[in-house]
Amino acid sequence: MVFGQVKAFAVRLDGASAGAEPVFSGGQVVAGRVWLELTGAARVGALGLRARGRAHVHWTESRSAGASTAYTHSYSECVELLSHRATLLAPDTGATTTLPAGRHEFPFSFQLPLALVTSFEGKHGHVRYCVKATLHRPWFPVRRARKAFTVIEPLDINTPALLAPQAGTREKVARPWYCARGLVSLSAKIDRKGFTPGEVIAIVAEVDNGCVRPVLPRAALVQTQTFVARGARKQKHAVVASVAGEPVGAGQRTPWRGPALRIPPLAPSILHCRVLHVAYSLQVSVDIPGASKLRLELPLVVGTVPLHPFSSRSSSVGSQAAFLLDWGPGALPEPPEAPPEYTDVVTEEVTATVPSPFPPQDPGLCLDGSYFLYIQEFRLRPPPLYSEEDPNPSSEAMTC
């Protein structure tokens, strides 16, 4: 539909391919073009561009002050992350500029700040970035075109804090109404704190069931969204992946026997935003019949930079050592046996039959020192003496 001689008006970003939009991070340059197509000559007052990035949270809470009195309290907060303005077209003289019919492209570019927050869409808030173009024409309504883009801040898990193993222990006295009470304990450990989507979390856990009924261990990856506004706090918990282990019989102590937990495609952790946080945790629980669950949470960080091979090797060695120390001497492996003595393997008869690698020594030859030094002295000539002056100077001087 032709609207006031403007057929198309859009914002396009460089680097976009079919079905995929470019992704940016802090410090990079965002470039693109404002595309304007006219069916006829048109007068344009100005063409402006604005880039914005905001973290916004909002929720409401209903409270009752009596039998017939209720009120709703609203919480809202906004943090400006990016603000950039530019003028792409302005008249040199006069109030307007006349553009001929056809397609017109107006390039633009701007640099993102170094510190940004990853784009996110949550239950009570979001982090969004967009580029908006505004076309002003006399006697016509203002035309606007908007283009959103994604920002993902790099979060490297190859740091000592995120490579450290995480462990915990919980216990609970189960009191089912139909049987005597019993003590149920749970111990769990993971080799590191930082992971990336697609990785597998190797769960090391042990359940001690003191009840008279079997219990069922489970493991789940939980995402916690925290929204902060005007001193209030709102949280949203969601299970993004879960697995179940094998039941532990009554009076048994069994390690975790179940599938590994794979991290699905997720938004990375958001740790440094004033109004919105995204955190993850590994929740290991035990279902106890007739009683509430026994839960143990281990904090996780979902990053964007995968684990380096060297960090993985050092982390695995350190985590295995820490695991053995944390879980007591009962988990330490038995010390290896000492190697046998040389005389127990090689007897005197075998030694006598083995020929010597050195030629027999002449009794008439008298050597000062050991036989090894004599061989080394004549086989290996000493290096020449060091001199600051070249004994064989070149006739041509070297030039750079």
TrEMBL record:
PANTHER family: ARRESTIN DOMAIN CONTAINING PROTEIN, ARRESTIN DOMAIN-CONTAINING PROTEIN 2. Belongs to the arrestin family. GO terms for biological process: protein transport. SMART domains: Arrestin_C. GO terms for cellular component: cytoplasm; plasma membrane. Gene3D superfamilies: 2.60.40.640. This is Arrestin domain-containing protein 2. It holds the Pfam family Arrestin_N. Residues 180-307 form the Arrestin C-terminal-like domain. The gene is ARRDC2.
